Amino acid sequence: MDGNGRWAKSRGLPKIAGHRAGAKTVDEITTAAREQGISVLTLYAFSTENWKRPEEERRGLFRLLEEYIDKEEAKLNKNNIRFSVIGDIAALPESTKTRIARVRESSKNNSAMVLNIALNYGSRQEITSAAREISREVKSGSLEVEAIDEKLFSRFLYTKDLPDPDLLIRTSGESRVSNFLLWQISYAEIYVTDKLWPDFKKEDFKIAILEYQKRERRFGG
Q1: Is the distance from CB of 113 to CB of 81 less than 8 angstroms?
Q2: Mean pLDDT for the stretch of residues 84-91
Q3: What is the pLDDT of residues 143-194, one digit of tens each?
Q4: Active site residue 166
Q5: Cα angle vertex 192, ends 189, 194, to 5°?
Q6: 2, 4, 116, 120: which is the annotated catalytic residue?
Q7: Which listed residue (4, 50, 149, 166) is catalytic?
C-alpha cells in the first residue's frame, strides 16, 4: 500500500493525512475483496524498516491502526471476516497489541475471508526466524536434517496457516517487492499501478483481478 506520503504532499497536507486517507482505502478494498470472493487479503501495513521513520509518524500510524480496529471490528464480524496479523508484534505498543488480541479472538471463527495485516513484518526477518527455529529442533533431536523440505520450512513461517498469494498488487508505480513475502510470492503474478494507495478504488481492484485472470500461470512448467 504505497503512496500515502506523496498523496498528502501533493495536496499540501501533513503525511498523517495521507495515512488517514489510506485507511479509508483499506476499508474499501477489504469490502471489494469480500465481494469478489477472495479468500485471503494481505495488506503490508508496517515493515521492519518503517521504524526508521520519524517517531511522530510512527505514533500516528499506530493510532490509526487502533482507530481502524475499534471502528471496524463489528463490521468484520458482521461480514464473517477473520482478522489475522503476521510479523513480530512483540515490539508494537501495548495498546495496539491489546486491540489486535481482542479482534483476533472475536473473529477467530469467521470463515468468509481472512484479512491479514503485516505489522512489523520483514520477509528476511521471517525466513531467518524460521531457520533459527528449525535449527533448534535439529539440535534438540526432534527433527532430522533430511526431513527439511519446502513444505516443512513453510510450517515455520508466519503464514503457515495461509495459502501462498496468487496476486501481488503494488501501488504508486513502484516496481519492487520491498521485503514482502519473498518466500510466498515465488509464483505470484505481479500487478503494478501508478495509482497512489489513497486513490486506489474498488474499480481499480477489479481491473487488477481482470488482468490477473488474463494471465497463464505455468509455475515454471
Answers
A1: yes
A2: 96
A3: 999 999 999 999 999 999 999 999 999 999 999 999 999 999 999 999 999 9
A4: no
A5: 170
A6: 2
A7: 50
